[in-house]
Fold:
Amino acid sequence: MSDATRDLLDAASSGDADAVRAALDAGADIEARGRDGMTALVAATKANHIDAARALIESGADVNATDDIQDSAYLYAGARGHDEILQLALANGADLASTNRFGGTALIPASERGLLSTVDILLAAGVDPNHVNNLNWTALHEAIVLGDGSDVYVDVVRALIDGGADITIRDGDGVLPVDLARSRGYDAIVALLDADRR
Structure:
C-alpha cells in the first residue's frame, strides 16, 4: 500500500476532508481496503464524517463497495440514520436492492431503529418496502417486533404503509403484522393496520 493510500484511509477515518483530497491528489487508491476491509468511504461513513464522505463521493468513490461484514456506505448510512451521507450515496449510484449480512435492504434496519426521516428518504428513493430478509421479516415486521410501539414507531409503520408495505405478508412463523402488534399491546399500530385492511 502506498503512503498516499495509507494517508487516505487515515484521513477518512479521522474525518479530515482536506487531507482526503490531498491524498487523492497524491495518487491514493480511492477503493483501497484498510482495517476490516473498509474502503475510505466506508470508514468515513461509519464515523459519520460527512465532509470526508462528501469529498470521497465527489471524487468517485463507490458507494456500494462493501467491507468484511457486507456494509457499504449506502447500506450503513441507511441503517444508522446518517441521512446526509445517505442522500449523497443515493445521488451517486446507490444500489437500492443491495442487502446487508442479514439479507436486508437499508430500509429494514432503519425501520427497526425507528429512524423516521431515513425511512422516508429510502421509501422516496424507491427501496422495496416488501423485501424479506434472512429472518423472514420485512421492514414492517422489524418495526413491530424490534420496536417498542412508541409514537415514532407508529409513524414508521404509517410511513411504510403509505409507502406500499403489504400488511398481509406473514413472518417466518406465519404470523401477520397486525397480530405481532396485537400480541405486544401496540394498540396504535394495530389500529393503523386494521384501518389499512378495510
Summary: The mean pLDDT is 96. Residues 3-14 form the longest helix (12 residues).
